[in-house]
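Researcher: I'm preparing a figure for a lab meeting and need a structural model of a single chain. I don't have an experimental structure, so a prediction will have to do for now. The sequence is pasted below. Please return the structure as tokens so I can convert it later.
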Amino acid sequence: MSFVAVESIGIIGTGIVGRAVAAKALRHGYSTTVANSRGPEAVRAALGDIGGLVHAGDVSGAAVADVVFLAIPFQLVPRLTDEADWSNRVVVDTTNQFEASDPYRGRAHIGDLTGSEWVADKLPGARIVKALNTMFGPYIDADPQHSEGRQVAFFAGDDDAANTQVASILTTFGFAALPVGNLREGGRLMQLDGFLNAKHMLLQNALDAPVD
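Model: Understood. Here is the structure written out token by token.
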């Protein structure tokens, strides 16, 4: 499947990750639809100053965007199975497999699956790309461009075209988008307790490196 330019972004969830992605999407000119479980007015209230600039809708409305960011607690993902047609939808999984949220605690037991493989099972037909789960929310919200380099955003997925679309969004947002493999090997590195989880790194511009 060839690369298709991304014009619209859907976001499911209005926590710190959902709000951060919405702000960046709007700032960079994407048509942005945001949904949560409490309806459009609650979406606008949760998004504060930018709430009036988004399309506030339901899950099915957010799911028709070119790329959908999944930004809800891990244990709530099964509620979305019948909320939209996920066939061929590019979904960015930002979740970590905590057993419970508010506060986040424990680790969900999902057998041998990685967290994103489990998410893919709950959203049948979706083309899942793991991204933005390895950073704490304030790092996603902040400007990823620093004098020392760009904030690294790892991503992993099984679909090359979906990976390319997500990488283009992350790059547009200002991150250094770095692929780490498929949902099995790469997803394991990125998921809760994985080697890359909670690692915050900058990628220096090679042209700025000191020369001996």
